[in-house]
Amino acid sequence: MNNWGIPDWLEKEVRERDRTCVYCDIQLIERMPPRGPRKAVATREHIINDQSIVSRENIARCCVACNSSKGTKKLSDWIQSSYCRKRGITKDMVAELVKDALRVDA
Ligand SMILES: [Zn+2]
């Protein structure tokens, strides 16, 4: 278990699944670089902003930029934000698990 209450097996599974940001599809990097852009550093994300949902469907990895833009916004609202519009992030290009969450969260 880590401090998110995520069991190790799930942490590992998500790490291996999400090599790119589940939102913008940028190649994720594992550690803060000593210099240079940090926006591609991998962060953990609850797709639906509910800390109690710890499942392979709700825990994902996304980049720093998407994570800080999304914040506590509802997924279906955020996907229509200017951040997403500018980057071409739409409900049709996000990772499958995000599409599934959008169907539920609509
Ligand atoms: Zn991203």
Describe what you observe in this structure:
The protein has helices at residues 8-17, 64-70, 75-78, 82-87, 96-105, and strands at 42-46, 59-63. With 106 residues, the protein is of the alpha+beta class. The chain has one domain (8-105). Strands 1-2 form a two-stranded antiparallel ribbon. The termini are far apart. The structure holds zinc ion.
The low-confidence runs, each spanning 5 or more residues with pLDDT under 50, are none
Strand content: 5-15%
Q: What's the story with the biggest beta sheet?
A: 2 strands, antiparallel
End-to-end CA span: 31 Å
How many DSSP E strands? 2
Total count of domains: 1
Cross-sheet strand order for the largest sheet:
1-2
Structural class: alpha+beta
Radius of gyration: 13 Å
Individual helix count: 5
| Shape, per Cα inertia axes | globular
Topology as a string of helices (H) and strands (E): HEEHHHH
Helix content: 25-40%
Overall average residue pLDDT: 93
Bound molecules: zinc ion
Descriptive terms for the model:
2 strands, 106 residues, 5 helices, binds zinc ion, two-stranded antiparallel ribbon, alpha+beta, globular, single chain
